[in-house]
């Protein structure tokens, strides 16, 4: 009896072209997924960040801007600002040996945030800095005084 039941079952027919079609479909779907994931990763790496950062250089200069490329030998910065300090002349003391000016009180120092591009040589608002000259990069918080000044347009 058991043998008769086996003979009564419908036979499953699979042809070679059907298997090839399924393999090629799976391969096409797999390649498409890999391409889509790669495209998304590339977009995420190259999209500019809206966040501002402070970029501290070995020379002592500090720039504020949006970093658009941090993963290469050069860091690319856009929307660049920097601080310029000034003090009242009355506090300046000139060293007779070196000619350097020193100031009696740091509390009298005035800071001005300067938009890069207003200089005499009129550079574009993009800068590429070699990573070997960068000491530190810090992301500015939204409540930063620097960001408040940038956003106010001063």
The CATH class label of the largest domain is: Mainly Beta
Label the structural class: alpha+beta
Number of structural units classed as domains: 2
The stretches of 5 or more residues where confidence is low (pLDDT under 50) are: none
Beta-strand percentage range: 25-35%
Mean pLDDT across the residues is: 78
Main beta sheet, described? 6 strands, antiparallel
Counted by DSSP, the helix tally is 3
Give the topology string: H per helix, E per strand.
Answer: HHEEEEEEEEH
* CATH architectural label of the largest domain: Roll
Helix content: 25-40%
Write down the overall geometry: rod-shaped
Cα separation of the termini? 95 Å
Strand runs, count: 8
| CATH-assigned fold name of the largest domain | SH3 type barrels
What is the element layout, followed by pairings?
Layout: H1 2-8, H2 16-46, E1 53-57, E2 62-69, E3 74-86, E4 92-94, E5 101-103, E6 110-115, E7 126-130, E8 134-139, H3 145-152
Antiparallel strand pairs: 1-2, 1-8, 2-3, 3-6, 3-7, 4-5
């Amino acid at each position: 009896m058991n043998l008769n039941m086996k003979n009564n079952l419908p036979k499953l027919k699979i042809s070679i072209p059907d298997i090839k079609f399924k393999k090629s479909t799976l391969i096409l779907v797999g390649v498409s997924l890999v391409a889509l994931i790669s495209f998304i990763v590339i977009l995420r790496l190259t999209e500019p960040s809206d966040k501002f950062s402070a970029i501290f250089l070995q020379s002592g200069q500090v720039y504020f801007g949006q970093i658009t490329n941090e993963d290469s030998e050069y860091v690319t910065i856009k929307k660049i600002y920097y601080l310029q300090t000034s003090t009242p002349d009355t506090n300046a003391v000139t060293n007779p040996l070196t000619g350097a000016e020193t100031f009696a009180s740091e509390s009298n120092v005035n800071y001005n945030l300067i938009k890069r591009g207003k200089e005499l040589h009129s550079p574009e608002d993009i800068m590429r800095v070699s990573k070997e000259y960068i000491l530190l990069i810090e992301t500015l918080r939204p409540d930063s005084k620097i960001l408040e000044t940038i956003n106010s347009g001063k």
